[in-house]
Write a structure and sequence with these properties.
Layout: H1 7-25, H2 33-58, H3 69-79, H4 88-108, H5 113-130, H6 137-147, H7 150-153, H8 161-179, H9 189-199, H10 204-207, H11 213-223, H12 231-250, H13 255-259, H14 265-274, H15 276-284
Amino acid sequence: MKNIYTVPEVVSKKKAGLLRGWRGLKIGYTVSEREHWVSAAGGLLGMLTLLWVSHIWLYGQTGVVPIASMGASAVLLFAAPHGALSQPWSVFGGHVVSALIGVACAKWLGADPLLAASLAVALSIAAMYSLRCLHPPGGATAMYAVLGGESVHALGYGYAFDPVALNAIILILMAVAFNYPFPWRRYPEVWWRQKTAETVQTPSTEEKCMIPHSDLVYALSQIDTFVDISEADLQRIYALALGHQHQQEAGTPSQAQATESAPGAAVRASNQALCPASSSTQNRR
């Protein structure tokens, strides 16, 4: 028998459906409240420094100001410092390459700014992919080179170096300085990969318990879209998940396991979960 609903019930069901749909559009964050405020503090200090250096030290009263796309870069550098899109070469290369392309489009297609701006963004995406420096705010940098007005056009190709390159360098240096004191914020990622490789020597028997590099590359290639996460973080997520599963099966973890934060701790935890024999052998050594 078909259900018959009253008008208030129908409205209530529609509201519930819309609410579920809205919740489905939102990103499910798993970071702590502390991380929210650390990211916000980083953005504040980063942009304050950039604006102060630009106005007081570099440009004075000349009227040249940091481009707005640096605000978007600050979000990536301080809220997602582990992401591939946030790494120094992505930030610097993405902005500078996009700026050069934007200036070229403005010069060649200046009579049609709509086409010039659109083409500048499109070519910037292609160039950033080719040069392995994909950085979303670079698209805004390219578009601003076309639509920024006469003051920007007067800079010519110099726009790519001053203010764009200088702004990017200042922001990167601030990100390195701000993120360094926090042990869970590894920026730039390459420094921490090298440090981990030097301090954590994993026996070959335990390496078999982790996902091989070639398998990760294959899996990412099958997705065939850009994933903003480093291989090191993928391995760490995998290790933490396996370690947590093992701890739940074995009972409450010890205080040493709960507080260990040295590079490679998560990897060792997962290795113990998957390869207890090899782990016990290493402990005896």
